[in-house]
Amino acid sequence: MIIREASKIDYPQLRQIYLESRRKSFHWANAEEMNLDDFDRDTTEEYILLAEEHSRILGFASLYLPENFIHNLFVHPDFSGKGVGTQLVNHAIEKMGKPARLKCVSENHKALGFYEKSGWKKVVEEGKPGEKYWVLIYE
């Protein structure tokens, strides 16, 4: 598996991963409201790392570098649990430095478990009812 910076030519695959991953795991959201264009909207002005193996993109992380913030981390459902997310997070921290921050939807118990197991610490839960998320930090 290699981790590299994404280029515009990768965007069709990245859009598909973003859509499929959210539709499969975001049980609290309306899947019918999700579409391929969400990727472009949700990664504007962000640095995108991707994980690739045999010319297939396995997942990506989008980073807002001015704030050492991981905005998105998504792994294709077929490759979940195979170390892709860990590799992406490690490379993201290497690129940004510490401390690094991210937000994770409170309902996303699987992701919260992944981050906590990886050494991230919950700082504060924010947001209004139905839209709560945890702010996490990695120092």
From TrEMBL:
For the N-acetyltransferase domain, which residue ranges apply?
A: 1-139
Q: Which Pfam family is an annotated match for this chain, by its short name? A: Acetyltransf_1
Keyword list (alphabetical) reads: Acyltransferase, Transferase
Report which residue ranges the record marks as coiled coil.
none
GO molecular function terms noted in the UniProt entry: acyltransferase activity, transferring groups other than amino-acyl groups
Where do the TM regions start and end? none
What Gene3D superfamilies does the record point to?
A: 3.40.630.30
Name of the protein: GNAT family N-acetyltransferase
Q: Where does this protein come from, organism-wise?
A: Paenibacillus rhizosphaerae
Organism lineage reads as: Bacteria, Bacillati, Bacillota, Bacilli, Bacillales
